[in-house]
Specification:
The complex is a heterodimer of chains A (455) and B (348). Chain A has 455 residues and is of the alpha/beta class. Chain A is built from ten helices and 24 strands. In chain A, strands 1, 2, 3, 4, 5 and 16 form a six-stranded mixed β-sheet that branches. In chain A, strands 7-14-8-9-10 form a five-stranded parallel β-sheet, with helices on one face. Chain B is α/β, with parallel strands linked by helices and 348 residues long. Classes of the chains: A alpha/beta (455), B alpha/beta (348).
């Protein structure tokens, strides 16, 4: 079926990027209805006139403008202001940071505007109200030049700035009192692009706290999304996305090109959903931090997309039917020794950094993410062992799999509750968080932990 | 087979080297010290109860990748002293101790020798800084590396010989000042010290914390500093640079101009933490000479010729100040660009 659908290197949702090497298609966000498939071969459905059309694309770049909100009426947005170079008498008033601090890109716009006006018309007064001048590119130079050209800079966190609905500006501080009217240009507040909720649903990616499609996670920088092959720019990415706009565009284009040379599965294990056991409850679909699970219409079962899968094993540990399995799952009976389950992204790295192995004489299971741990596994380990179990995840909000460490904590907490109900000792299972750079803490803790049990 | 030389084994060089090696290229990584990591080798985690997105979690796996990658040969304790242009590619002259060697068959060079921190520069460190109550922000790294608050639940141990009850962070130190040989804003110090302040706040809820800024900057891709945020964490905000420092027996007294009230005011503190501007690396003159590069006004490097033609690429803070995440992203882009150029050259 897919053979007849046109295939592109990259599909842009929103604005396309200038590049003549990539074959591309642009789909307006309002027309998009569905996305299936995975990196290398996405199929996008969209409304074109009265038809439902489909295209295939190897990569997807969501590049949408921020929504702008002006903090006052009666003014021009700094992002749209054109320098008025006529022999203007009235002053130019530029305001940034009127409510929240503006992004560095807005400082740049403001400085450029101020300079352009001052250079063509030195006699015209230019007032620049701000709280913090934010730097990127050559803002330093522009700022210095603007000062030389006698742009009047006034920090309004050091005084009271008020702008009335009619565009009258008053500024007051101990030694200065100003009442101004003139051409008023104000930095808009940048908000997430429109319709991101719809895109989050279509691509099955989580939105961050401010509503952008990028979750605040270090592993998603600079333009990665939770889903492999889907990249985010500008108003889809985050509040600071304009600061490094050029760098982010370059990075994204190069990533897209690199993906075209081939993408490999993240590990060699195979993860399969047993279609006889799967009841299509969508638990895995909802939990997967990487949008790697889709429904197989023919089998009426969920399926894991092998290239999109980032191998955190969260779906396996949480499937209520036990329908998902992986080839590398070890069935070995644990020995009767102290046991620790560690995440390869934090504790495992800290272990390497420690001077002496903090896990000497401990049975260590290294997992791609602590979300791998099933509740049943905790019970089994405690039943087969006399010793305690320690699980080490990542610092809050720094999980490579976005939610893995929190999901594991939930599992550990329910396990503890269950143990308590059965009148067993809940403290036999421990959960802690650390970062790769906490080798000292880890060593000290383990030394102590061992001591406790020996008594 | 020809090799790509990467000069500098910090996060910029290692990210680029790992990316190139993964694409099947042979890489020669040249590091002047005896281990990888550069500036951030011994940095400590800056999480409070949450990750503060300092991005250090990303780096160790990159260094490990470089160690494990068969396509990368690393020369430690080695510096590059010259570069000879051949008919095709380059030969690098390296020096390691007494030993001078030739590294032939270099097709491209990525220069990623990073920056120097303001505290590392010998010049201009006045007498006043020789006081145990005045420290550099980076002096926290040892304390943070040895922190035992997440697992063991102990408080951060100050490495100072005394327990401060208050601390003042002085931003824009070593930046935005001609006297300090940096008229530019280093951009990263706001976020850096803000994270340290958060760790202190988390460990010592009673401590008085204040920050002096000229202009508060964004603190990376994912963190946006704001006055509200500081207020919430009870970190006092001063919108100026202090003018004078007085050293009393019991405390340090900072004199600053309270611009709102239009008069001088003072602030007492036990500890003064100086931010560190990012300054150009020490060998920029040499790199400019042997690789045909240009020093910009601030002493950072830029290319004169397009790297596609010259084969000389720049990555990391050699070009301008930058944080870990930006540096990694840009270095990856540089590596991809190099591969792309190499591929199109091969086609011709």
């Amino acid at each position: 079926m897919s053979g007849s659908i046109e295939q592109y290197d990259v599909a842009y949702i929103g604005q396309a990027l200038p590049d003549d090497e990539l074959s591309q298609v642009t789909i307006p966000v309002s027309a998009l209805t569905e996305c299936r498939g995975e990196i290398g071969d996405f199929t996008l459905s969209f409304q074109a006139e009265d038809d439902l059309k489909q295209v295939r694309a190897s990569n997807i770049v969501i590049n949408l403008k921020h929504q702008e909100e002006l903090p006052v009426d009666c003014c021009t947005s700094l992002l749209e202001a054109e320098a008025n170079l006529a022999e203007e008498e009235e002053p130019l008033i530029i305001v940034q940071d009127y409510q929240d601090l503006s992004a560095a890109a807005l400082s740049k716009e403001g400085l450029e505007l101020a300079l352009e006006v001052k250079e063509s018309n030195p006699a015209r007064e230019v007032y620049y109200f701000y709280q913090a001048m934010r730097f990127m590119d050559n803002n330093d130079e522009l700022y210095e030049k603007a000062r030389e050209k006698e742009v009047i800079f006034l920090k309004h966190d050091l005084g009271d700035l008020e702008i009335t609905d009619k565009g009258k500006v008053s500024y007051q501080r101990e030694d200065i009192k100003l009442e101004l009217t003139g051409e008023l240009t104000v930095a808009p507040e940048l908000k997430p692009a429109a319709k991101l909720d719809k895109l989050a649903r279509i691509f099955n990616i989580t939105r961050g706290p401010e509503g952008y499609l990028q979750v605040d996670n270090i592993y998603l920088q600079p333009t990665l999304s939770g889903k492999r092959g889907v990249y985010l720019l500008a108003g889809a990415r985050g509040p600071n996305s304009l600061t490094y706009e050029q760098e982010e565009i370059q990075y994204t284009l190069q990533e897209v090109k690199r993906n075209l040379t081939g993408v490999e599965e993240i590990d060699e294990e195979e993860r399969t959903v047993d279609d006889q056991k799967c009841v299509v409850c969508y638990t895995c679909y909802r939990l997967c931090p990487h949008g790697a699970i889709q429904r197989d219409e023919e089998l009426n079962s969920m399926k894991i997309m092998p290239l999109a899968c980032q191998a955190c094993n969260l779906c396996i540990s949480r499937c209520p039917m036990g329908a998902i399995s992986r080839s590398g799952e070890d069935e070995q009976q644990p020995k009767d020794e102290r046991q620790v389950i560690i995440c390869e992204n934090s504790a495992a790295l800290a272990r390497e950094k420690a001077e002496t192995d903090p896990f000497a004489d401990t049975v260590v299971t290294e997992v791609p993410c602590v979300s791998t741990v099933k509740k049943e596994e905790i019970y089994q380990r405690l039943a087969n062992h006399k010793s305690d179990l320690l699980i080490l995840g990542c610092i809050s909000e720094s999980c490579k799999h976005l939610t893995g460490h929190d999901r594991c904590e939930q599992v550990v907490n329910t396990a503890k509750e269950d143990l308590e109900k059965l009148d067993l000792d809940p403290d036999r299972v421990n959960y802690h968080r650390l970062s790769p750079r906490m080798a000292t803490d880890l060593s000290a803790y383990l030394a102590d932990w061992k001591g406790e049990v020996l008594q | 087979m020809s090799r790509i030389a990467v000069i500098g084994g910090g996060i910029a060089g290692c990210t680029a080297a790992a990316e190139l090696a993964a694409a099947g290229q042979q890489v020669l990584l040249i590091e002047k010290e005896d281990s990888l990591g550069g500036n951030i080798k011994n940095y400590g985690c800056k999480a409070d109860s949450l990750c503060t997105r300092c991005n250090l979690c990303l780096v160790d796996s990159v260094f490990n990748q470089v160690h494990q990658e068969e396509n990368i040969e690393v020369l430690f304790d080695t510096t590059v002293i010259d570069c000879l242009k051949e008919d095709e590619g380059f030969t690098l002259i390296t020096s390691s101790g007494e030993l001078e060697e030739q590294q032939p068959d270099i097709s491209e060079v990525i220069l990623a020798t990073g920056h120097t921190r303001w505290s590392e520069l010998e010049t201009g460190t006045p007498e006043i800084f020789r006081d145990e109550r005045i420290i550099w922000a980076s002096d926290f790294e040892d304390m943070l590396e040895g922190r035992q608050d997440q697992l063991t639940g102990q408080n951060l141990k100050f490495d100072l010989g005394f327990e401060p009850e208050s601390a003042v962070f002085l931003q824009c130190n070593g930046s935005r000042s001609l006297q300090e040989k940096a008229r530019y804003c280093s951009k990263v110090c706001c976020g850096y010290n803000y994270r340290i302040a958060r760790v202190l706040r988390n460990n010592f809820p009673e401590m008085d914390l204040s920050m002096f800024f000229i202009d508060m900057q964004e603190a990376g891709f994912l963190v946006n500093l704001s006055r509200e945020d500081l207020k919430e964490r009870e970190i006092d905000y001063y919108n100026c640079k202090p003018l004078r420092l007085e050293k009393e027996k019991d405390s340090l007294i900072l004199h600053y101009e309270d611009q709102q009230r239009g008069k001088m005011a003072t602030l007492e503190t036990d500890l003064l933490v100086l931010s560190e501007g990012i300054h150009p690396g020490s060998n920029h003159e040499r790199w400019a000479r042997i690789f045909n590069l240009q020093e910009n006004e601030d002493g950072f490097l830029r290319t004169i010729w397009s790297p596609a033609e010259s084969g000389i690429y720049l990555a990391g803070t050699i070009t301008s100040p930058g944080d870990i995440a930006t540096t990694m992203a840009e270095s990856k882009t540089v590596a991809y660009k190099l591969l792309e150029n190499k591929l199109s050259k091969a086609k011709v």
